[in-house]
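Sanity check

After download, print the first record. It should look like this:
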Amino acid sequence: MTIASEFIAMAHEMLNDQEIGFDGTLIVKVKEEGSESKPWAPTFKEQEIPLRLFYDEQSKTSVNGSIVLQGEKVFITYEPDGISLEDCIGFKFIDHKGRSFVVNAVEPIGAGGTTIISYVKVGS
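Expected structure tokens:
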């Protein structure tokens, strides 16, 4: 087991703790099958991806160089299987209270080229 995989396991354990983490849903756009016939006009469908997250209410003033503005929120999460959060900028996010946001910035934190957790900035 590598150090990165140990940190990933620790992030999963902490965020999956009901006293620490919250549920959220990322709405990703997935290219539909059959779009190859018209590669210039692919069609997409929305897919709900569950997330576990922790709101960072105090320490982050920017995410990947993007300043956190009033009304925006920053949370910490691990990447869902098969999804790169950096590719989800502009996608919809729904938090545990049913509030809808848009992903504005993502800052992955990792080791050895492996993302362990990411800061995600969302706003309206």
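If your output differs, re-run the checksum step. Summary of this record's structure: The chain has one domain: 3-31+43-123.
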